[in-house]
Design a protein that fits this description.
2 copies of one chain form a homodimer. By secondary structure, chain A is an alpha+beta fold. In chain A, 57% of the residues lie in helices and 13% in strands. Chains A and B meet through α2, α3 and α6 of A and α2, α3 and α6 of B. Chain A binds a DNA duplex through residues 4, 29, 31, 46-48, 54-65, 76, 78-81.
Chain lengths: 107, 107
DNA sequence: CACAGAGTTCGATATTTGTCGTACAATGAC
DNA sequence: GTCATTGTACGACAAATATCGAACTCTGTG
């Protein structure tokens, strides 16, 4: 059995360009930007801990987009899913990108 | 009369976050990434000088998205439109973002 | 076991987006 | 002025996206 998370992380890895486009697309939504920003400041957090103005299913959708683009990863912890910003992986492939985005947002 | 270019550049300027989302969205398409990358390397270029695998109207659409997000600006020169990457404006508002994106792409 | 909590998955739907072809506008060349 | 060049504007249309509600899975707890 292949874990969902594994497949998700690999989903868009063909050429460097495609992956970059996927990451940028994942970040180009206000709600997802907010998720990334809060994950950056608050460390690991469960999906429900964001107080987002959307329903559970929409929330789930946004986390999936971020997961499949490789921006975050999710692990199960008891009843909840803990989300983590994949700082190292992002920094490795796109040096400076995450910080540029996070810094711009809080201007 | 308000020039088209002026309106375009101002189109998405409300909050910092919204503008960032617009810029990221503009960059999250392979063709537009290629346009930006070529503009970065080759300096100013006319729309037709990109040899893109799309029709004129689609091409026009992509340049408009980039223009409205503030990523490029366009000026008329004879029969053609010359496109310029708005390096300074981008660097001013989102320090390091453009370079992070351009560097990642050529990995 | 039954039940509540936390997310995911599955349609459904409205909006946005990428693409095209055709028509149009502006400019330089004849 | 007429024509070719360069790009824009305008529908049209298919695919992707954001959103929702309802049904489902998994986990811990009574």
């Amino acid at each position: 059995m292949i874990a969902e998370t594994e497949r998700a992380e690999v989903a868009s890895c063909e050429t460097g360009q495609l992956e970059l486009a996927a990451v940028l697309h994942a970040m180009s939504d206000p709600i997802r930007l907010r998720i990334v920003s809060e994950l950056n400041e608050g460390g690991e957090r469960a999906c429900g801990a964001f107080n987002l103005p959307i329903t559970k299913s929409t929330c789930s959708h946004h986390f999936r987009v971020l997961r499949e683009a490789g921006v975050i990863s999710t692990r199960v912890a008891g009843k909840s899913r803990i989300n983590v910003l994949r700082r190292e992986a992002l920094e490795d492939r796109f040096p400076g990108l995450l910080d540029a985005i996070l810094h711009a947002r809080s201007d």
